[in-house]
Design brief:
This protein has 3 helices and 12 strands. It is mainly beta and about 170 residues long. It has 2 domains: about 90 residues, RimM (Elongation Factor Tu (Ef-tu), domain 3, Beta Barrel), CATH 2.40.30; about 60 residues, PRC-barrel domain (SH3 type barrels). A 6-stranded antiparallel barrel has the order 1-2-5-4-3-6. A 6-stranded mixed β-sheet has the order 10-9-8-7-12-11, with no helix packed on it. A hairpin with a 2-residue loop joins strand 4 and strand 5. The radius of gyration is 19 Å and the shape is elongated. The model has no long low-confidence stretch (mean pLDDT about 90).
Length: about 170
């Protein structure tokens, strides 16, 4: 079974077993819907948990698990990551991609010059995301993930084409 990381448990919240989660997902209300199953990776194992409650608080997701609504039962999961099964991933509209689909793609200019490989997709608060690209000479560059710089994305060909803009690279 394949899993996709959707967040990290950063702390507990209160004494009733709520967990404070730093989300990596744009679909928190869907992911943490009451009754859904998520998986916590602990000691290399994916442990299934059924969602009992979800709410947002100061930029974090607060989630509790059924049968684990006590701080003493969930404290052990601090710093663990939360996953969903890949098969339950929401389909995105055409032209939109998950981070995992972009990471590892080769990046070329429109002139077919290899720039490097996408190491990560980095979010900024309220602004556009950036592609962190590792170049052939092991330097890291950030390219804004906006149409002004990105010409095309082709996950099947495992490549991204960017426009060469003066001062960008």
């Amino acid at each position: 079974m394949e899993y996709i990381c959707i967040g990290k448990i950063v702390n507990t919240f209160g004494i009733k077993g709520e967990l404070k989660i730093q989300s990596y997902s744009d679909f928190d209300a869907l992911r943490y819907k009451k009754g859904n199953t998520v998986y916590v990776r602990k000691d290399g194992k994916y442990l299934p948990f059924r969602i009992a409650s979800f709410r947002s608080h100061k930029g974090f997701s607060l989630v509790s698990f059924a049968e684990h609504q006590n701080i003493n039962l969930v404290e052990q999961y601090k710093e663990c990551e939360i996953f969903i099964e890949e098969s339950s991933r929401t389909k995105l509209p055409e032209g939109e991609y998950y981070r995992s689909e972009l990471e590892g793609l080769s990046v070329y200019t429109e002139d077919h010059e290899l720039i490097g490989t996408v190491k990560a997709v980095e979010e900024t608060n309220g602004a556009n995301n950036y592609l962190r690209i590792v170049t052939a000479d092991e330097k890291e560059v950030l390219v804004p993930y906006v149409k002004a710089f990105i010409s095309s994305v082709d996950p099947e060909q495992k490549q991204i084409i960017i426009r060469r803009v003066e001062g960008l690279l």
